[in-house]
Amino acid sequence: MKRDIFQAIADPTRRAIIALIALQAMTPNALAEHFDTSRQAVSKHLRILAECELITHEQKGREIYYSLEIEKMKEIDQWLEQYRQIWEARYGQLDELLEVMKKERA
After folding, report:
1. pLDDT digit string (tens) for 24-67?
2. Do the Cβ atoms of 44 and 13 come closer than 8 Å?
3. Which residues contact 42 (CB under 8 A, 6 or more apart)?
């Protein structure tokens, strides 16, 4: 079963994992050092992120390194863009109103 990408990022631990591997590829053991949970719990989060294709893994010797799939993150950005445009328009209107009020007081 393929999970929804937003289910994957709904969990704070998975968002923290994404933030960590955005900087560099990491092994499950290295990731587990950043959390108060077990390595198995981190591996479960990694599996969910991989199911959503947010991360990829590469075997290097005996270690598996996980890295962020930037192209998949763009789906999140594209979804957010519609709301970003709405809020930027509203902030623009607020700026204009504040400027008018400032001129009226001067």
Report:
1. 999 999 999 999 999 999 999 999 999 999 999 999 999 999 99
2. no
3. 13, 17, 28, 31, 32, 35
Q: Which two tokens stand for residue 57?
A: 């893994």
Q: Which residues of 44-54 are buried (b: 16+ CB within 10 A; e: fewer)?
A: ebbebbbebeb
Distance CA 81, CA 92 (A): 16
DSSP 106: -
* Sequence letter at residue 78: Q
Residue 83's Cβ-side half-sphere holds a number of Cα atoms within 13 Å equal to 5
| CA separation for the pair 78, 54 (Å, rounded) | 15
**What DSSP string describes 23-90?**
HS-B-HHHHHTTSSS-HHHHHHHHHHHHHTTSEEEEEETTEEEEEE-HHHHHHHHHHHHHHHHHHHHH
Q: What pTM, to 2 d.p., does this model score?
A: 0.78
